[in-house]
Design brief:
- By secondary structure, the protein is α/β, with parallel strands linked by helices.
- The protein contains ten helices and 16 strands.
- Helix 3 packs parallel to helix 6 and helix 4 runs parallel beside helix 5.
- The longest helix is centred in the middle third of the chain and has 20 residues.
Length: 434
């Protein structure tokens, strides 16, 4: 059949077609893992444009993202929305040496490989596998063949694959959904494989790329080796605070000097209690009372600390954090979060343990409207630094937030001889937050 479609017009349409009223990918955020292997199938125009588009969508939702593409004997590294972070200069072993430094700083990783790559190279080391394809019949048919190859290899190796994500690009939401249904029905019926729609990317839009470089393939680890090195680097980054000599210091309720053998820590903030916890109905203490009660009484009764359920955190968090003053406005996309400024004119976005994604949304909003914010607030004129900040009621909630780049503080109740007080304890700082 002869096609009368103008290829150059089709390419231009991918860049110039107005965006649909709904979100471009059809979900609040792409459904991916922290490390995702992307099988690059049949795509309209250049594959690199679409993989970068997906990485930018991921970075928009989750924060700084690393995109790694294995293609044509080269390895390309690109960082999306990475706040000025850089990739290493070319050289033998440069990528391997760079991974330990970057593993804790990047929130998500997309490792893109050609769809015809042998599954043995990536399947065992992949946390999540996603197939990216177009919506035309050839792309869907080719996608099914790739899924069959993946399933057959998994059965042969004794490690069956039970779920794969799908990204459909270069098509309207209706066309993308139809292609996904065709592929999903065939995969379930003939392969016993469940698929889920990760994202729809109908058009190519502007991306926020921080750095990009390509390296000869013979100077870089292969796909399987790279995934293994990345897993090791991320594991080491997650446990870099677990050394035995890095013991948390005790909280100096009575204002006494810490022993010299204890590493220095930021001094906690003591804030007035809004209410006494159920376990103790003694009257709440203010800051002065907490710091000036009799040392003899403190010696007779050491303070005890209790976690606060998230629901019992005060409605306003900024007043509990030393050195911050409320900005006086809220982001319309997440009005429940608080904006504040510190003495260095940095903007702090303050949320709770379950609001990191919302904090990231506000960060994007603040970055996009930096000029308007500078007009409204002289302190922000000429640009400003944004810091994500999470206040916890239970220090155990920090486990899932460790290494995300957010500043973490925990609010605990300290039982003292004079009554309960709330103590804000920093858990990290800008150099250790990831």
């Amino acid at each position: 059949m002869t096609s009368n479609v103008d290829p150059y017009g089709s390419l231009a349409a991918l860049f110039t077609t107005p965006a649909a009223p709904e979100a471009s990918h059809g979900h609040s955020a792409p459904r991916i893992g922290e490390v995702t292997t992307v099988l690059v199938g049949n795509l309209p125009v250049m594959a690199g444009l679409w993989t970068t588009q997906l990485a930018d969508e991921v970075a928009r939702a989750f924060g700084p993202t690393g995109l790694v593409r294995f293609e044509r004997g080269e390895v390309t590294l690109e960082l999306l929305r990475a706040d000025g972070r850089q990739v290493p200069p070319a050289g033998p072993g440069a990528v391997s040496r760079w991974l330990p430094r970057s593993a804790g700083a990047l929130r998500r990783w997309l490792v893109c490989v050609p769809a015809d790559t042998a599954p043995a190279e990536y399947a065992d080391a992949s946390e999540r596998i996603v197939l990216m394809l177009g919506a035309d019949e050839a792309a869907v048919t080719g996608g099914y063949l790739r899924l069959k190859q993946l399933c057959d290899e998994g059965i042969h190796r004794g490690r069956p694959v039970d779920r794969v994500g799908i990204v459909v690009v270069g098509a309207s939401p209706e066309q993308a959904d139809a292609a996904f249904r065709r592929l999903g029905d065939a995969a379930r019926s003939f392969l016993g494989l469940e698929v889920d729609l990760v994202a729809r990317l109908p058009r190519i839009e502007r991306v926020e790329s921080s750095a990009r470089a390509s390296y000869p393939g013979d100077e870089c680890p292969g796909i399987g080796a790279f995934l293994g090195e990345l897993a090791t680097a991320r594991s080491q980054a997650a446990h870099r605070f677990d050394a035995e000599d890095d013991v948390p210091a005790s909280i100096p309720i009575d204002g006494s000097v810490q022993p010299k053998s204890v590493p220095a820590r930021p001094q906690p903030t003591v804030a007035p209690m809004n209410h006494a916890p159920a376990m103790n109905h003694a009257p709440a203490m203010n800051h002065a009372a907490a710091m000036n009660h009799a040392p003899a009484a403190a010696a007779r009764s050491a303070p005890a600390y209790a976690a606060l359920p998230m629901a019992e955190l005060p409605p306003r968090l900024v007043p509990l954090l030393r050195g911050l003053r409320p900005l006086g406005i809220a982001c319309p996309l997440a009005p429940e979060l608080e904006l504040a400024l510190d003495d260095e004119h940095r903007m702090h976005i303050v949320g709770r343990s379950d609001q990191l994604a919302r904090v990231r949304t506000v960060r994007t909003w603040a970055t996009m409207h930096a000029e308007l914010l500078g007009l409204a607030f002289p302190e922000l004129k000429g640009g400003f630094e944004v810091r994500e900040r999470i206040l916890l009621g239970d220090a155990r909630d920090a486990i899932v937030l460790h290494g995300t780049g957010a500043l973490l503080d925990v609010l605990v109740v300290a039982q003292t001889p004079s009554g309960p007080v709330q103590v804000v304890v920093p858990l990290n700082d800008p150099t250790t937050c990831g």
